[in-house]
Amino acid sequence: MSVTQQQVLDSLARVKSPRGVALTHANVLSAISASDGKVFFSINVDAAEARAWESIRAEAEAAVRAIPGVTTVMVALTAERKPGSAPPPPPQPSRGTPGVQPAHAHKPPQGGQSPMARQSEIPGVAAVIAVASGKGGVGKSTTALNLALGLRDLGLKVGLLDADIYGPSVPRLTGLRDKPELNGERKMIPLRRFGLAIMSIGFLVEEETAMIWRGPMVMSAVTQMLRDVEWGKLDVLVVDMPPGTGDAQLTLAQNVPLKGAVIVSTPQDLSLIDARRGLAMFQKVNVPVLGIVENMSYFQCPHCGTKSDIFGHGGARHEAEKLKVPFLGEIPLHMAIRATSDAGNPVVDSEPDGPHAAIYRAIAGQVRDQLKGVIAAA
Ligand code: ADP
Fold this sequence. Notes:
Elements: H1 5-12, E1 33-35, E2 38-46, H2 50-65, E3 72-80, H3 115-118, E4 125-132, H4 140-153, E5 158-162, H5 170-174, E6 191-193, E7 196-200, H6 207-211, H7 215-227, E8 234-240, H8 247-255, E9 258-265, H9 269-284, E10 289-300, E11 307-308, H10 315-323, E12 327-333, H11 335-342, H12 347-350, H13 355-377
Helix pairs in contact: 4-13, 7-8
The structure holds adenosine-5'-diphosphate.
């Protein structure tokens, strides 16, 4: 049974805002996405009023969940600080209620503050790490998934969170399209494939919807996927970040309790400039950069194995040396990587004895070594 936007609006008309008017007349609702029984929208309020709206957000979510045919509801409460108004309340850890999340201002964070000071850890997860890139299309998601699999091969318990809200590619890379179920505490249960616990915004909303999200909605949705998901016990949770170094990425880098970040770059100069920005972004919020990966480093002919440095291979290694961050490895541009990725069979899993899997495992080994203390402590 399909659910229409009008049905959602009709049910929201019965929810009263803190000012007493119907939610639909309070001028706070974003566009409503309703398809295949999945409903997503946000309530956008002034940060100073955010606390008063939290129970309304929960009420709105319950009202929509009660519509026959609705299978998933995600209602984000987002708060934007108006110039001159009081600062928003600090983020709070979830108390296990799905969808109940604090509002977040989307002002970029001020530099120098530790992310751990602002965000509590995820229970059961020893280390959350980001895989980031200065721009899209450099193979960040492919690297994130294969790195996660490399860590798995080292005997670690690993999760993957696709926070690339603007273009979630984990459903394509893993072949997973199911909707996560809720557990008894109404937390989402991550999907499982390749021995990984996997969560993607792409499991919840259509790609077109994600494209129009603004900064605060991104933060709210990612927070929900971090904290309202039953991750279980993990050594490492790999977060595939949205590409770029804008406000949304900076806010994420600060608000997700990251133990480190891996930056993916191609050897082209432009991409390296972007990677430098990525590096600066993590350094600004005191997240250690675990290293740079050069993806599409050189072209390897699938027939004869000959290597060609079509992009001027080695730029990222040189850049890493200059910036004094570890260089984690070079991944060739190879048909097998593209074909396996795009068919939902990542190369580390589908060709575990091949040369590409070995490269990803070597990168994973360096990442694991840098996180050893954290994982052991947990
Ligand atoms: P991003 O997350 O940076 O946007 P993706 O991981 O989605 O990038 O990769 C973009 C495209 O490039 C995909 O089609 C993917 O299969 C391909 N790709 C990524 N890395 C490689 C590689 N090393 N060799 C060949 N193709 C690759």
